[in-house]
Amino acid sequence: MNGRAESDAAHQGRACLIAAASSVLGALGVLFLWKSDAIDITTAYVLAVIPTALMVFAFVKTLRQSKGKASQRYLTRMALVMAFYLITLFLAENLIEDRGLTGPLAFLLALLPGLSFAGVIWIFGALIVEEKDEFFRLLYVRQGLIATGVAFTMAAVWGFLETYGQVDPVAAFWWPTLWCIGIGIGGIANKIKYGTYGEIR
Q: Domains in the chain: how many in total?
């Protein structure tokens, strides 16, 4: 019976993670369409309901599932910080890029998406610290090291190519983005080697 309950919780956890990831990708897709003038601002706000609903679903589900597990607290925090990221990103794009907002408020709005994105790394660190199971802590550390290796390798290689004029410069926020992709790669590596991804179990 306990095995079935754990399996159900794992499936629900995966559904929450998929919903949270889909909400971020959906919101970025809406933002891309809006900035490329494929849709107007009104349509963008209407379409933004979809990723917002997915994020609310993920947050509510993880909140209901939370039973003190570090992995469940991780999902809840991640849902919150991603919601904050999407809100501040839309505000910055709308007010700074489109309406020409300047001054201290513009600086603050430009700062907030970066801080919320950086929060992802701190949340992952908290997962490692709070996890009581040594095996899963090993998986998280391994996952984080793989992600760091992916991001730092790409940053180092691209940095020298950029220095010597072989490639165009890229915005700095791509390096933590690659770290997040590396977390996914690390999860797959954990699954191949140990039979489980890590965060969702």
A: 2
Instruction: Indicate if 95 and 147 belong to the same structural domain.
Output: no
Who's near 58: CB < 8 A, 6+ residues apart?
Answer: 16, 17, 19, 20, 23, 75, 79
Shared-domain flag, residues 93 and 154: no
Structure tokens at 65: 């599932």
67 belongs to a structural domain: yes
Residue 119 included in any domain: no
69: helix, strand or coil: coil
Residue 10, judged by CB atoms within 10 A of its CB (0-12, 13-18, 19+), counts as middle
For the stretch 15-42, pLDDT in tens is 666 666 676 677 767 767 766 777 776 7
- Backbone angles phi and psi of 147, in degrees to 5: -60, -45
**pLDDT score at 1:** 46
Structural domain including 171 reads: 133-201
What pTM does this model have? 0.72
> Is the model's pLDDT at 150 over the cut of 60?
yes
Residues 100, 146: one domain? no
Contact 45, 7 (CB under 8 A): no
